[in-house]
């Protein structure tokens, strides 16, 4: 008799014997807490259309529950708010089922689809399921949908809640499982009235919480020295350090390694890390070597790393913030919430009693917000509104959401879409708007692509869009190599600005046959360049589907770069800044202006009078990043409908534009 539980899918489809790896991990997953509840869960799901399931991080929700409901002939979809989690967890489950990733078990994230016609269990980001719902509102391919990590309260998961509520009525055979790591489930319970709730008790060991006496001035510094101190003074056990982003994490990894050498195995974890590197965090280290994982808050609940005994929590994470008054959405390093801090601390108690080092005073903890605000309250909703419109939701204010966005945020979103000509005067989706919603991009970028043939440069705009979609292709190591890296970058620099610099890099990569060595020599991130190539191919397919012409201006024409910059402006005309006589840039939009600074990474050779920017970043000051020089009169040509100026604050920029308008009027009159 087969000593292992029968894995139906695998046996039916492949009929091989089990691999050694399968046997090895089998013992482990049978011990996960959710297994005790398997029968109860399946029975409840059979009798109900929706089930809520709450269980401590690491209890096996993400990896096991979708397998419980698996049947050979139907599709189960399990959403993850983060792409790394979707990729990593699906790999793990493929291993558990002893199948190749991309076959019976696969994943779909933006710009990457690793599934096949054989796939019966698909992990996908919540954003991707939302896109699928746009193409097929009934989600006809799915039999069971699992919305995981509901406690993260991401925008896409919220929208899926609302949509699925409607879909379930029309599809009585469809089942929905909502899973969450925390007992905030009360709130979900209220939203899904009358839905049964299954609680999987956790298996957490006690975690001792230590605070600093004083607030720390530099949390990065403090985090690094805490790791060193743990390594020197504490018994064996792995360490998990939370930091806010890629650069900071890489920097910390280097410095910890420099200090502790071979005694530790330091591993980074963040969303843009290569899948091979991501997988490393799950591998055990040799005896005597301590594993130190330095991660963004992705390791807070999305990914469980076993063996962690010490957690270092600086109390900050990068969070999206949106101010409807200034219309600025930015990622800002901000204090975490108490709920987040407690989740992080819990990571230390998975295997045995642990310790959590909070790099702030206890008093500061008490002053933190209780819960992190839902993303819908912190986002620019232009994209969301576009998607909902596409989904046929007419009255956005009446759409059933767990938290309602601020009315001014909604109003701003409608305004922006109107200016982008995605909505008409009656607030209905236009043809352009419909096309825009098909691009997995922000509305400005989608608009820019759609109109780029008018400037005869859709090929170039495609390349730039692809590069903007995989940010930060330049590698800039600290220390000695930094100068060489900066020199390499300057060889690509275009004096008109960063968008064109990105275009240069993309062209050079292709000219050098996508050679990894060439990337290495030029301090360019090879993997990101490969993704840019793949993103571009996918965008091309969407363009062709809509019969949008692919074309390039004559490279030798003096208008080559003029055309490209005008095309940029046709999407991003609401992201323009003007150099005032005071020497400061002021953003120029209706109803608002802000003092901003060019981000130090810019390639401009002078402070141009007008610039267009891709992104607004707050750090110590307000920066605009990825900037390109444009001419003021183009605003009048490209976006006259927006630059009516009556609603614009009085400024030098406004006076300059008024002169341009006047000039244009005069020349029009003359030519009549
Ligand atoms: O979703 P939940 O937090 O309840 O747990 P899970 O993600 O299903 O994790 C269950 C177990 O699988 C944990 O012990 C993880 O460490 C392990 N796992 C793994 O070893 N490799 C992965 N790529 C993902 C999970
Ligand atoms: Mg999970």
TrEMBL record:
It catalyses: ATP + H2O = ADP + phosphate + H(+). GO terms for biological process: mRNA processing; RNA splicing. Keywords: ATP-binding, Helicase, Hydrolase, mRNA processing, mRNA splicing, Nucleotide-binding, Spliceosome. Its EC number is 3.6.4.13. One of its GO terms (cellular component) is spliceosomal complex. One of its GO terms (molecular function) is ATP binding. This is RNA helicase. It comes from Capsella rubella. The lineage of its organism: Eukaryota, Viridiplantae, Streptophyta, Embryophyta, Tracheophyta.
């Amino acid at each position: 008799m087969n000593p292992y539980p029968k894995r139906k899918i695998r046996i039916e489809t492949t009929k091989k014997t089990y691999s050694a790896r399968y046997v090895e991990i089998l013992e482990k997953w049978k011990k996960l807490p959710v297994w005790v509840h398997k029968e109860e869960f399946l029975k409840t799901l059979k009798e109900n259309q929706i089930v809520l399931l709450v269980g401590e991080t690491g209890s096996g929700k993400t990896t096991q529950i979708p397998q419980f409901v698996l049947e050979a002939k139907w599709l189960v979809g399990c959403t993850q708010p983060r792409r790394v989690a979707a990729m990593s967890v699906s790999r793990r489950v493929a291993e558990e089922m002893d199948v190749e990733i991309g076959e019976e078990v696969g994943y779909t994230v933006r710009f990457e689809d690793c599934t096949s016609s054989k796939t019966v269990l698909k992990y996908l980001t919540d954003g991707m399921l939302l896109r699928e719902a746009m193409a097929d509102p009934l989600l006809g391919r799915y039999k069971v949908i699992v919305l995981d990590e509901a406690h993260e309260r991401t925008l896409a998961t919220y929208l899926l809640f609302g949509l699925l509520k409607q879909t379930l009525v029309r599809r009585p055979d469809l089942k929905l499982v909502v899973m969450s790591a925390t007992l905030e489930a009360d709130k979900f319970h209220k939203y899904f009235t009358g839905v049964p709730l299954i609680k999987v008790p956790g298996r957490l060991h006690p975690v001792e919480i230590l605070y600093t006496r004083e607030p720390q001035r530099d949390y990065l510094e403090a985090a690094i020295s805490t790791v060193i101190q743990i390594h020197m003074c504490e018994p064996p056990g792995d360490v998990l350090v939370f930091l806010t982003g890629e650069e900071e994490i890489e920097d910390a990894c280097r410095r910890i390694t420099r200090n502790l050498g071979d005694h530790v195995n330091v591993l980074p974890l963040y969303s843009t890390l290569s899948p091979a590197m991501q997988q490393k965090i799950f591998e055990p280290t040799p005896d005597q070597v301590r594993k130190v994982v330095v991660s963004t808050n992705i390791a807070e609940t999305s990914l469980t790393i076993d063996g962690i005994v010490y957690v270092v929590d600086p109390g900050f994470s990068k969070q999206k913030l949106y101010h409807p008054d200034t219309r600025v959405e930015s990622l800002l390093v901000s204090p975490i919430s108490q709920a987040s801090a407690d989740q992080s601390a819990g990571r230390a108690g998975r295997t045995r009693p642990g310790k959590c080092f909070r790099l702030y005073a206890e008093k500061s903890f008490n002053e933190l917000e209780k819960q992190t605000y839902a993303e819908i309250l912190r986002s620019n909703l232009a994209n969301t509104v576009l998607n909902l419109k596409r989904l046929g939701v007419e009255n956005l204010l009446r759409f059933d959401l767990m938290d309602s966005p601020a009315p001014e945020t909604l109003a701003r979103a409608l305004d922006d879409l109107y200016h982008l000509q995605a909505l008409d005067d009656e607030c209905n989706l236009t043809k352009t708007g419909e096309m825009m919603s098909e691009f997995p991009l922000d509305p400005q970028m989608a608009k820019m692509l759609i109109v780029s043939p008018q400037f005869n440069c859709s090929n170039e705009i495609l390349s730039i869009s692809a590069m903007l979609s995989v940010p930060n292709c330049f590698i800039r190591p600290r220390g000695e190599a930094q100068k060489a890296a900066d020199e390499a970058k300057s060889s690509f620099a275009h004096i008109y600005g960063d968008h064109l610099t990105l275009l240069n890099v993309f062209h050079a990569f292709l000219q050098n046959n996508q050679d990894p060595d060439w990337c290495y020599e030029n301090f360019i991130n090879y993997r990101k360049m490969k993704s840019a190539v793949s993103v571009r191919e996918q965008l091309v397919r969407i363009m062709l589907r809509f019969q949008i012409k692919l074309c390039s201006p004559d490279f030798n024409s003096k208008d080559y770069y003029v055309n490209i910059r005008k095309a940029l402006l046709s999407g991003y005309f609401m992201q323009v800044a003007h150099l005032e006589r005071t020497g400061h840039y002021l953003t120029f939009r209706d109803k608002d202006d802000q003092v901003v600074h060019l981000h130090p990474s810019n390639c401009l050779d002078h402070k141009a009078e007008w610039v267009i920017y891709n992104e607004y970043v707050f750090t110590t000051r307000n920066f605009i990043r990825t900037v390109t020089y444009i001419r003021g009169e183009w605003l009048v040509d490209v976006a006259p409908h927006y630059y009516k100026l009556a609603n614009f604050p009085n400024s030098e920029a406004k006076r300059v534009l008024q002169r341009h308008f006047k000039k244009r009027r005069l020349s029009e009159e003359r030519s009549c």
